[in-house]
Structures are given as structure tokens and as C-alpha cells.
Amino acid sequence: MRLEDVEVFVEAIKAGSLAGAARRLSMSAMAASRCLNNLEAELGVRLVHRTTRSLSPTSDGEVFLPHAQALLEDKTNALADLFPDGAHLSGRLRITASAAFGRKIVAPLLPDFMRQHPALQVDLLATDEQVDIVGKGIDVALRIAPLRDNRLVAHRLCDNPRDLCASPDYLAANGYPQTLSDLATHSCLTTSDTTHWWFEQAGQRSRKKVSGRFSANSIEAIFEACQGGMGIANLSRWYVGPAIARGELKRIVLADAEPEALAVWAVYPTSRLIPAKVRKFVEALEARLVQNPLTPGA
Predict the structure, then answer these.
(1) Using CB atoms within 10 A of its CB, is residue 241 exposed (0-12), middle (13-18) or buried (19+)?
(2) What is the pLDDT along the chain (298 residues), one digit of tens a residue?
(3) At what angle do helices 3-15 and 29-43 cross, to 10 degrees?
(4) Burial letters for 138-151: b for 16+ Cβ neighbours within 10 Å, e otherwise?
(5) Are 276 and 79 in contact (CB under 8 A)?
């Protein structure tokens, strides 16, 4: 039984199609189909139901799937023991992060990481949309938000402090808010469908209703609107710190509250063995965050 054939079967079940498995494994759809046919011939059973649009496991396929996953994990364990420094990393590493974090933090890290692991391919999905990491076959998601899906496994990487900020022109025209209650009279730039911001106030979490004329599903769009004088934004310090240092934005410090800090999390699709390629990437990211904390302009 060839492990390459087993890997195609597992990836096809994850992706719901052979074409999806082929893309993830960087092979042609014809080669993926041949691998699956070889495996079914080897086992003497039909593992999947195939149509022109979808693929699903047969009852025999459902029985074999956990064993197939265990075989691949045994391979990963063996390589990790033989090459503990990660020198043997190969295959495709699929990462997702917000557009801003992906562009400013993750992408600059990847050239050195990929030079250290020349057999590794990396696919970075940078988007502000919430991604189904199981359905999309993502190896690790980097998230800056409270985690709501308790089926996923998460590892906390670092603090993520946030700041209220606005352009000098906006503050000159509308005044500088002094307290949390003052935000009610200001235009606040929010993510789509957000009606409240969370704050730390007298040692307690406090929720404040906010509103404004502009909202967006993109942090980068909110940042541009803030620079353009459209209102007050509540953004990660690593993102707005450089603009504050240049004088393009001003940090707003309230007398009675401060924005609730979040955290950066590495989120994995399963509690089973974390592949060496994922573990080494997260270690590299953690090292970068230790050397350069996410607090410019603090």
C-alpha cells in the first residue's frame, strides 16, 4: 500500500473532490484519480462514491479513513524523529490569516522560512472572511478574536493590544473624547454588523454601543477611512502604531477606560498530531513575535 495513494484518499475526503485533493497535493487530477484507483484495487473495496461534482466515502471508506489518517500520522512521526530540526519538511502548508496580519506579519516571515525548507510549498489565504478551516483543508489559522468554535484546537501566541485612534483633522473638527461616554457623540468606524466595542473599565469588561456612517468587512478599509478623517477606529496597535508614530493618526486615551486587548491564536483543525511543517511554522512565527512584539509605538 503506497502512502501517496493513502494521502490522496484522505485529502479527497477532506476536500470533497479529487480535483480539490489534487490541488492540495500539487498533482494533476488524472494522477490523483490513478492513486485512488490503485488504493481501491489494493484493498479490494470501493472507498468513495464519485459524481462529476462531488465525492463522499462509502461505508468501507468510512471504516478505512481513521486507519488511513493513522498511517499518515505514523509517517509524520517517523520523519519528525529522524529529522527533529525540520530539515525534511515537504508538501504544502496552507495558512490563513486576516488580510492585514497576513500582509504585515506573516508574509515578511515566509521568505526566510521557505529558504530554510526548500522542499516546502506554502499557500497563504489572507482574508477578513471567517474561513472554515476543516472544510478548506487549512493546516493552521492565525486569528485575532475571541474563539467561538470549541471543536478546534488553539494555541495562544501573544497579546494583541488595541488603540482608539483618529486623524488630526477629525479631532480638530469634532473634538477629542475624554471619557467612554463621549464616544456616543462621535462617528465610530466599525467592522460590518458590529454594534458594540469592548473595554476594560475599573478592572471589569465593559460593552459600549458605537455607531457611525462607515463600516466595512476589511480592517484595511477601516484604517484608510480613519486616515481620511471619517471617524474613530479601534484597531490593533501593531497595525496603527506606525501611522501614529508618523503623526498621520493620533492615539486617543480615555480617562476611564481602554480598549480590551485580544490575543493572537494559532488554530488547528484537529487535536490529532500536529504535522511537523505546521509546528515548525508556528515556532518560527512565535520567535518572530518574541523578537518584535506587536506593540509598535507603545
Answers:
(1) buried
(2) 899 999 999 989 988 888 888 888 888 989 999 999 999 999 999 999 987 677 899 999 999 998 898 888 777 767 666 666 556 677 789 999 999 999 999 999 999 999 988 888 899 999 988 888 877 778 899 999 776 656 668 889 999 999 999 999 999 999 999 999 999 999 999 998 889 999 999 889 999 999 999 999 889 999 999 999 999 999 999 999 999 999 999 999 999 999 999 999 999 887 666 788 898 999 999 998 877 767 644 3
(3) 110
(4) bbbbbbbeeeeeee
(5) yes
Beta strands in 167-227 (DSSP E): 188-191, 196-201, 204-209, 215-216
Query: By the 8 A CB rule, do 39 and 8 touch?
Result: yes
The structure's pTM equals 0.70
Alpha-carbon distance 288 to 295, whole Å?
13
C-alpha distances (whole Å) from 204 to each of 61, 146, 170, 198, 199 are 51, 17, 30, 10, 8
Name the packing angle between helices 3-15 and 59-82 (round to 10°). Answer: 120
Q: What Å distances lie between residue 135 and 60, 71, 172, 220, CA to CA? A: 22, 21, 48, 26
DSSP 3-state of 188: strand
State how far the Cα of 173 lies from the Cα of 181, in Å rounded to an integer.
19
Q: Is 247 helix (H, G, I), strand (E, B) or coil?
A: coil
* CB atoms near residue 192 (< 10 Å): 11
Burial of 213 (0-12, 13-18, 19+ CB in 10 A): exposed
